[in-house]
From TrEMBL:
Residues annotated as domain IclR-ED: 62-245
Organism annotation: Streptomyces thermocoprophilus
A Pfam entry, by short name: HTH_IclR
InterPro entries, A to Z: GAF-like_dom_sf, HTH_MetabolicPath_Reg, Tscrpt_reg_IclR_C, Tscrpt_reg_IclR_N, WH-like_DNA-bd_sf, WH_DNA-bd_sf
Keyword Transcription regulation: yes
Domain HTH iclR-type as annotated: residue spans: 2-61
Protein name: IclR family transcriptional regulator
């Protein structure tokens, strides 16, 4: 039975390369045409493949529907939270997770620092879009026309002397973030708070969330916080791998 399932599943990545006829499928699997036909008929009955009028098979619509349903059921916060906790335990600083929804960038998770100085950020509250490191990552991933349109309609509050001053500077910053793959807020929102952030990507490579480490400069300097960038990026990559299905989830028993 396991061999039959393995053969059937092997057909799907083959058809992802393009339509194939019965003979091509049989040859790729190394089986007789009758065996390949039984497998294709079963997949066809479940809507996972579709036989075209030219007798070639392609991926079926049900497969795409299942993929969409699976993506929609994923809870990025649930997947990311254990990683955020481990990062917090390792560095001791405040860790955030944010997403871009309906024109706003919102914090959806937060693990507080171990020291008495706490940040005022709250889960469910929007971030300061023009300066926040997580916002820069999420907005930098937008197509260029969307980035430009957004930048031109934003206000640019001068929270501190380091705040982003205008649309031109914001677009330049987003382009820099897009190229380097990480972002910072070094006193742009609060002069005493620094932040470094990395993107969480889905299976298609698009940024689905952004996570960050933040700390007041009375605890660590900006340079010391930036030294944590490799750790932050590894954490974001681990979340990305689990979210996109590239990394198997272990149950801790092996």
């Amino acid at each position: 039975m396991s061999q039959t399932v393995d053969r059937a599943l092997s057909i799907l990545p083959m058809l992802a390369e393009g339509p194939a006829d019965l003979g091509q499928v049989a040859a790729r699997l190394g089986v007789h045409k009758s065996t390949a036909l039984r497998l294709l008929r079963t997949l066809d009955e479940h809507g996972l493949v579709y036989r075209q009028s030219d007798q070639r098979y392609r991926l079926g619509a049900r497969l795409f529907a299942l993929a969409q349903e699976a993506m929609e059921s994923l809870d990025i916060r649930e997947i990311a939270h254990p990683h955020l906790v481990r990062l917090n335990e390792e560095c001791g600083h405040t860790v955030h997770l944010a997403v871009h929804e309906e024109g706003e960038v919102l914090y959806i998770d937060k693990v507080d620092s171990r020291y008495p100085v706490r940040m005022y950020s709250r889960i469910g509250r929007p971030v300061a879009v023009t300066v926040a490191a997580v916002a820069k990552l999420l907005l930098a991933d937008l197509p260029e026309p969307e980035r430009r349109a957004l930048a031109e309609k934003l206000d640019y509050p001068r929270y501190t002397p380091r705040s982003t001053p205008d649309a031109a500077a914001f677009l330049a910053e987003l382009e820099r973030v897009r190229e380097q793959g990480w972002a910072t807020d070094l006193g742009g929102h609060e002069e005493s708070i620094n932040c470094v952030a990395a993107p969480v990507r889905g299976a298609d490579g698009r940024v689905v969330a952004a996570m960050s480490v933040s700390a007041p400069n009375v605890v660590v300097t900006a340079e010391e916080l930036l030294a944590l960038l490799p750790l932050v990026r590894r954490t974001a990559d681990a979340i990305s791998g689990e979210y996109s299905g590239r990394t198997p989830v272990t149950d801790g028993t092996s």
